[in-house]
């Protein structure tokens, strides 16, 4: 569960929109409760949570409670709902606070970039013992430099006592790291429903807020019935494509694997045996919950990383009974998430038939007599119903039309669809031409650069 508060865009009365958002089975954010108030102190938040508790008739006990840096959010939640299993800060808010204070307190740009790299190395350390070694070494470096003393005091006061709320080593496998989906939700309301205009009337804002919630409910209904490729599924497929021959998989046993890639070593282990979720890689026939990896992409960002995909391919290659469709037969940009369930629920015999037909097509050979007889029996089964006969007749007519065009008997300019009628007297708008030549851009140095792997190792060894 994520919770934060955000001000409405240019509201004349300075109202604040508070939102409780949960993540569904496809890791999509959905707002479940909102409050508009001209105050954002603990008493108002306590009243908001009390009404939510009364409405649902029970205490909400989330596994992870994520919020921004405001302490009154968690305090009010704890008083009304009780303590969640784990509380964490949104990493995006933490990094923005660090950048802001470094810009204010450190004037030297090179020194500021070097300090930010050290902080990112400390943040992304996954081993708890190494984290404390790095923390001690970085604090000593900051205290030794006169320009960094002011920032060191700020960091010691606000972040060192709360290291468990922002460090990666204390949030492994929390399955959530930032509240970008919540920020995107508020920006959608501001810029798409309010047209990025200043809204001084509360009734107009409420109208647009109800429209937004209505659209999100319809989107969810469409997603559940027709299928939809969510952000997590797109990221999952990108990781599958990024698997290369450089990744070497060594199996310790059936549930534990060692992954070596360049100079890095990771460990993948089986988390659960079977899962019915929809976040599935249909190439690997594995969902996002079945394996976990020690890399940041899996343990912190909760993606099905390329190391897990490599393990799945290793298992598939070793298992002779596993039959999958070739990659060329699937268009991942257009396939909806519902296709995942279809592939997983397809019997092995059917997959074998599809794989045989695909192999026949690739070899440019015709089907065998047994295959033709099987296809014939399936067609006869379809023709038993009236609906099947109509569908078969329509497909046959389209096939005849395509064959006639290929043989040259019919002109290829045949109109398959009725074209919309256009008024001949209508004034045609002038075509505007734009140059596609790329304009020269100046090489700009990125602010707050990220540390490289060598720099991270150097920071750690210098802290010993």
Instruction: Return the structural class.
Output: alpha+beta
Record the strand order, biggest sheet.
6-7-8-11
Shape: globular
What's the CATH H-level homologous superfamily of the largest domain? Ribonuclease H-like superfamily/Ribonuclease H
Radius of gyration: 29 Å
The residue ranges in which pLDDT falls below 50 over 5 or more consecutive positions are 4-10, 321-355, 357-364, 410-419
- In CATH terms, what is the architecture of the largest domain? 2-Layer Sandwich
The succession of helices and strands, N to C, reads: EEEHEHEHHHHHHHHEEEEEEHHHHHHH
Mean pLDDT: 76
Helix content: 40-55%
* Whole-number tally of structural domains: 3
How much of the sequence lies in strands comes to 5-15%
Distance between the termini: 38 Å
CATH topology of the largest domain: Nucleotidyltransferase, domain 5
The CATH class of the largest domain is Alpha Beta
Number of strands: 11
The biggest sheet, with number of strands, parallel, antiparallel or mixed sense and barrel status, is: 4 strands, antiparallel
Q: How many H/I helices?
A: 17
Structural commentary:
The chain is α+β, with helices and mostly antiparallel strands. The protein folds into three domains: 2-90 and 178-223, Ribonuclease H-like superfamily/Ribonuclease H (Nucleotidyltransferase, domain 5, 2-Layer Sandwich), CATH 3.30.420.10; 91-174, no CATH class; 231-345, no CATH class. Helices cover 48% and strands 12% of the residues. It has 17 helices and eleven strands. The strands form four sheets. A four-stranded antiparallel β-sheet has the order 6-7-8-11. Helix 3 (91-105) runs antiparallel to helix 4 (109-123) and helix 5 (128-144) packs across helix 17. The protein is globular, with a radius of gyration of 29 Å.
């Amino acid at each position: 569960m994520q919770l934060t508060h955000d001000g409405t865009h240019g509201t004349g009365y300075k109202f604040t929109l508070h939102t409780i958002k949960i993540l569904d089975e496809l890791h999509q954010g959905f707002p479940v409760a909102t409050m508009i108030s001209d105050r954002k102190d603990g008493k108002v938040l306590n009243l908001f949570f009390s009404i939510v508790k009364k409405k649902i008739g029970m205490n909400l006990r989330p596994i992870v409670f994520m919020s921004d840096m405001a302490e009154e959010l968690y305090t009010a939640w704890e008083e009304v709902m009780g303590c969640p299993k784990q509380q964490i800060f949104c990493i995006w808010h933490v990094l923005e606070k660090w950048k802001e204070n470094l810009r204010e307190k450190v004037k030297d740009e090179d020194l500021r970039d070097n300090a930010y790299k050290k902080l990112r190395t400390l943040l992304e350390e996954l081993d708890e013992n190494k984290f404390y070694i790095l923390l001690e070494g970085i604090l000593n470096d900051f205290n030794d430099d006169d320009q960094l003393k002011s920032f060191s005091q700020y960091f010691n006061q606000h972040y060192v006592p709360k290291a468990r709320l922002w460090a990666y080593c204390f949030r492994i496998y929390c399955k959530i790291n930032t509240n970008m989906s919540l920020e995107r939700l508020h920006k959608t309301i501001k810029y798409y429903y309010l047209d990025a205009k200043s809204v001084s009337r509360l009734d107009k804002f409420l109208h647009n807020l109800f429209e937004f919630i209505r659209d999100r409910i319809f989107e969810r209904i469409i997603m559940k019935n027709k299928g939809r490729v969510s952000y997590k599924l797109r990221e999952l497929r990108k990781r599958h494509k990024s698997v290369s021959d450089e990744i070497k998989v060594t199996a310790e046993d059936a549930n534990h694997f060692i992954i070596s890639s360049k100079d890095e070593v990771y460990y993948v282990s089986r988390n659960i045996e079977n899962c019915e979720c929809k976040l599935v890689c249909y190439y690997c026939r594995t969902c996002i919950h079945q394996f976990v990896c020690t890399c940041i992409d899996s343990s912190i960002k909760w993606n099905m990383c390329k190391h897990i995909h490599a393990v799945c391919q290793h298992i598939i290659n070793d298992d002779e009974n596993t039959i999958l469709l070739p990659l060329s037969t699937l268009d991942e940009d257009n396939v909806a998430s519902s296709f995942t369930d279809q592939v997983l629920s397809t019997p092995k015999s059917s997959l074998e038939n599809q794989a045989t037909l695909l192999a026949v097509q690739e070899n440019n050979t015709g089907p065998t007599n047994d295959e033709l007889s099987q296809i014939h029996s399936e067609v006869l089964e379809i023709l038993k119903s009236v609906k099947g006969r109509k569908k078969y007749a329509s497909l046959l007519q389209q096939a005849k039309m395509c064959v006639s065009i290929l043989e040259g008997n019919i002109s290829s300019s045949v109109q398959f669809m009725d074209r919309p009628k256009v008024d001949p007297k209508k004034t045609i708008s002038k075509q505007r031409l734009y140059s596609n030549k790329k304009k020269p851009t100046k090489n700009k140095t990125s602010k707050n650069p990220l540390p490289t792997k060598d720099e991270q190792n150097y920071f750690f060894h210098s802290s010993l």
